[in-house]
Design goal:
It is a single chain. It contains ten helices and 13 strands. It is of the alpha/beta class. The chain has a seven-stranded parallel beta sheet with strand order 3-2-1-4-5-7-11, with helices on both faces. Strands 6-13 form a two-stranded parallel ribbon. The radius of gyration is 20 Å and the shape is globular.
Length: 328
C-alpha cells in the first residue's frame, strides 16, 4: 500500500511547488495530480502521475493500493482571481468542487484532507484578524470559500478518525509567480509604481517556501482539526515593503503617491481609454481599491505553536533573488 498525495489543483502554483518540496523530503511514495490541465513540471518523475479532473463535476476515478491512514488529499482547486470571473462562477466551481472532493475522500476512505481556503472570508477591513475572529465574507469569492470550509468541516465531523487542516493564506509570492507582489516589484523597477495614500497599510503576505513549511508543520501535528492563517510574522507595511525592495534590488527610480480616491478615479479613466483603443489593461477599480485596503492577518495558531518563521519580507526577497535572478 502506497502513502499517496492526491492533489486537486496540483498544476497550480502552490501544488507545483508543494510537490517539489515534498519530493525532496520524501514525504509520500507517490503523487497524483488532479487538474483540468497537466502540470508543467514533475511528469518525468516516476512518483508523479496526472489524471484530468474538473472538480465542478463528480470525481469518478478510484485510487488503488493506497494507505488510507497515511495518505492525504490536498484541495487547492478553485476559481480565485478577483475581478476576473462572473459572480456565479465562484459558486459554480468552489462550492460543488469542495463537495465533490469530500465525496471522493468518502468513497476512497481517505482520512486526511488539507484544504486551501483564503483570507477573503474575513471580509474587507483594516482591523487585525486572527483565526479566532468572526468572518464577514463580502465578496462572491469570500462567500464561496466560507461555504467550502463548511463542506469540509461537515465531512470531518462525520467520523472520529478523520483529520482536516484548513489554511487561510495571505498573498503568496515567490519564484516564477507572476502575482501581485511580483507586479509590485516590476513596477518599482520601472518607476511606475504609485503608492496609495501614505502606504502605512498592512498587507498579509506569505513566501511560498514558508507556506510549504507550514503545511508540513501542521500535518505533523496530531490534532484532528486545524484552522490557521498563513502570513509572515512579523508583517511589514506596504511602505516598508517598497523600501526593502528598493534597497535589496538597488532600484533607484522614485515612487509616486496619490490618494486612493484619485487612483480609483484614474483606473476608471484608464479602462475607458483601453476599451476605446482596444488595448488590454490589468488596471481595474476593484484591484486598485483592494490595493489600498489593509489585510491585517495574524497567524496566531502558528505563533502559539512555535512555528519558525524564516522568511520575513527581506529574507524572502533575498531567497527569491538568489534562486530566480532572471525575474529581477
Amino acid at each position: 500500500m502506497y502513502k499517496t498525495a492526491i492533489i486537486f489543483g496540483g498544476s497550480g502554483y502552490i501544488g507545483t511547488n508543494m510537490i517539489l518540496f515534498f519530493l525532496k523530503k520524501q514525504i509520500f511514495d507517490r503523487y497524483i495530480v488532479c487538474d483540468i490541465q497537466p502540470p508543467e513540471e514533475h511528469m518525468g518523475k516516476d512518483e508523479v502521475s496526472y489524471i484530468e479532473v474538473d472538480i465542478r463535476n463528480p470525481i469518478k476515478f478510484k485510487i488503488e493500493a493506497v494507505n488510507v491512514d497515511s495518505s492525504w488529499i490536498f484541495n487547492f482547486a478553485a476559481i480565485h482571481r478577483e475581478p476576473g470571473h462572473q459572480e456565479r462562477e465562484y459558486f459554480d466551481t468552489n462550492v460543488p468542487g469542495a463537495r465533490h472532493v469530500v465525496n471522493f475522500a468518502e468513497e476512497n476512505d481517505i482520512k486526511n484532507i488539507f484544504f486551501t481556503s483564503s483570507i477573503a472570508p474575513y471580509g474587507q477591513s483594516n482591523k487585525e484578524r486572527t483565526e479566532y475572529s468572526q468572518i464577514y465574507p463580502d465578496t462572491p469569492y469570500g462567500v464561496s470559500k466560507a461555504l467550502a470550509e463548511e463542506i469540509h468541516n461537515s465531512w470531518l465531523n462525520e467520523k472520529n478518525e478523520r483529520r482536516l487542516i484548513i489554511v487561510r493564506p495571505g498573498v503568496i509570492f515567490g519564484g516564477k509567480d507572476p502575482g501581485n507582489v511580483y507586479v509590485m516589484i516590476r513596477a518599482i523597477r520601472r518607476g511606475t509604481f504609485v503608492l496609495p495614500n501614505s502606504g502605512k497599510i498592512q498587507k498579509a503576505h506569505g513566501y511560498i517556501e514558508g507556506l510549504l513549511e507550514s503545511i508540513l508543520f501542521t500535518m505533523n501535528k496530531t490534532t484532528s482539526s486545524i484552522l490557521y492563517n498563513y502570513a509572515e510574522n512579523p508583517s511589514v507595511s506596504l511602505k516598508e515593503m517598497i523600501s526593502i525592495t528598493k534597497k535589496e534590488c538597488n532600484y533607484k527610480r522614485p515612487i509616486f503617491r496619490l490618494s486612493l480616491k484619485l487612483l480609483i478615479g484614474a483606473s476608471y479613466f484608464i479602462r475607458i481609454i483601453s476599451k476605446l483603443t482596444g488595448r488590454k489593461t490589468k488596471i481595474h477599480p476593484i484591484r486598485v481599491k483592494k490595493a489600498g485596503l489593509s489585510t491585517n492577518i495574524i497567524p496566531q495558531y502558528l505563533i502559539e505553536n512555535k512555528f519558525e518563521f524564516k522568511y520575513n519580507y527581506r529574507e524572502a526577497l533575498k531567497h527569491w533573488r538568489a534562486n530566480f535572478p532572471d525575474q529581477f
